[in-house]
Amino acid sequence: ATASSWGPEGPESNRRGYDYLGQARSGFMSAVGEPDMPPLLAASPIADQMGAIMLAYGILAALFARDRFGVGKEVNASLLGSMIWLQCLSINTSLLAGWEMPRQAKSQVWNPVYCHYKCSDGKWIALGLLQSDRYWADFCKAMELEKLENDPRFENLVQRAINSKELVPILESRFASKPSDEWVEVLQQAELLFCRVNSISDLINDPQVTANDYITEYDHPALGKVNMVGFPIHMSETPLSVRMPAPE
């Protein structure tokens, strides 16, 4: 099995690369952010991680094929290919439509209730009302914005998309009137889809993160008890755990 930067074929197959370059060449950096921003680098080394994940995926698939068909395979996964695969939905959409999906300004989102808003304490709330027509009346009631429910500018998904420049500032102003804890309570009581926009330091206090051991405590031989990232999957009969430190 081989991990490469740009794939096993082509004129640059032997050229070296790093995470930064994988994010750049795959189109990822040009796809995130708002229209007037320069290309943005993800805070996490996502290309390195995706390359490793896809290499492991390929190895497991090859081992399964060997056991079933008795044939071995050479496996290669690259930073470039893995990052393109990560974006397959948006890239396929662009290829099929014949035009590149543009960056979108927050003020011009196609669905203003599938967006994020800043609260009075500086924290952010992300709304997940993808089926906005289904939840629009309940949302307006919960936000005490009943007058918007039957406003012809916002009466359905299409009109809210057309008039997002008008709706987004209204919602920004409303969310800015209360701290995030109050909005969490309001939105939970209304049974609407939402979540907090966490920072890295917020994760350790997120009850879902801790309940599922997505961040777990580990007794490090040199550092003592530390918190570190756990496993994103659970196995019923063979629970996963962090058992040893990284090799030095």
TrEMBL record:
<dbReference type="InterPro" id="IPR050483">
    <property type="entry name" value="CoA-transferase_III_domain"/>
</dbReference>
<keyword id="KW-0808">Transferase</keyword>
<dbReference type="GO" id="GO:0008410">
    <property type="term" value="F:CoA-transferase activity"/>
</dbReference>
<feature type="transmembrane region" description="Helical">
    <location>
        <begin position="77"/>
        <end position="99"/>
    </location>
</feature>
<keyword id="KW-0472">Membrane</keyword>
<dbReference type="InterPro" id="IPR003673">
    <property type="entry name" value="CoA-Trfase_fam_III"/>
</dbReference>
<keyword id="KW-0812">Transmembrane</keyword>
<keyword id="KW-1133">Transmembrane helix</keyword>
<dbReference type="Pfam" id="PF02515">
    <property type="entry name" value="CoA_transf_3"/>
</dbReference>
<protein>
    <recommendedName>
        <fullName>CoA transferase</fullName>
    </recommendedName>
</protein>
<dbReference type="InterPro" id="IPR023606">
    <property type="entry name" value="CoA-Trfase_III_dom_1_sf"/>
</dbReference>
<feature type="transmembrane region" description="Helical">
    <location>
        <begin position="46"/>
        <end position="65"/>
    </location>
</feature>
<dbReference type="InterPro" id="IPR044855">
    <property type="entry name" value="CoA-Trfase_III_dom3_sf"/>
</dbReference>
